[in-house]
């Protein structure tokens, strides 16, 4: 019984997909999977954690998603001002101080989008916040490689734990990508 519980628990840390960059996620492939909405992390997923504004490439990515009628909500554990400065020029709804991996903010974002959770994907660069939170709330998840290898203090701690989880999963044959 304990082995089954550990196995079920570990699945919460396992994303449905893994890509190198947000730019590897194309609206056409999302639509083929029935995806109508994206809940995405901000820092180190869309831009480096110390970059305030969207890059021209990110602006174009958002435009492509909107052109394909895919709604986006940004969900971040960061403070209101940080998330607002990034999100408002993109005319994109956001949730700040989300307390990821708790599922409340994910479910709230889906409700605001008025999209069934089966039609939404959660995208982020952290297993302990984005993937765990998205999976726990019942969404599909995509893990992206962090944009930069530097992090804030809490995230550095999380990355050490993530490396152990990924190493265990790799050894068990659950994942095949490299860090």
UniProtKB/TrEMBL annotation:
A GO term for molecular function: phosphatidylglycerophosphatase activity
SUPFAM superfamilies membership: HAD-like
Origin: domain of life: Bacteria
One Pfam family recorded for the sequence: Hydrolase_like
Gene Ontology CC annotations of this record: cytoplasm
Listed InterPro entries: HAD-like_sf (IPR036412), HAD-SF_hydro_IA (IPR006439), HAD-SF_hydro_IIIA (IPR006549), HAD_sf (IPR023214), PGPP1/Gep4 (IPR010021)
NCBIfam families given in the database record: HAD-SF-IA-v1, HAD-SF-IIIA, YqeG_hyp_ppase
Protein name (Swiss-Prot/TrEMBL): YqeG family HAD IIIA-type phosphatase
């Amino acid at each position: 019984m304990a082995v089954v519980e550990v196995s079920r628990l570990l699945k919460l840390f396992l994303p449905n997909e893994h890509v190198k960059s947000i730019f590897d996620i194309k609206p056409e492939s999302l639509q083929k999977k029935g995806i109508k909405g994206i809940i995405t992390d901000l820092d180190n997923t869309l831009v480096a954690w110390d970059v305030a504004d969207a890059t021209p490439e990110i602006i174009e990515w958002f435009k492509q998603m909107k052109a394909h009628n895919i709604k986006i909500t940004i969900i971040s554990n960061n403070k209101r001002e940080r998330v607002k400065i990034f999100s408002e020029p993109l005319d994109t709804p956001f949730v700040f101080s989300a307390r990821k991996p708790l599922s409340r903010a994910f479910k709230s974002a889906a409700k605001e989008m008025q999209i069934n959770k089966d039609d939404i994907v959660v995208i982020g660069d952290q297993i302990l916040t984005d993937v765990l939170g998205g999976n726990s709330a019942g969404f599909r998840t995509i893990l992206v490689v962090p944009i930069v290898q530097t992090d804030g203090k809490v995230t550095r701690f999380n990355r050490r734990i993530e490396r152990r989880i990924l190493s265990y999963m790799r050894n068990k044959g659950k994942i095949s990508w490299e860090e």
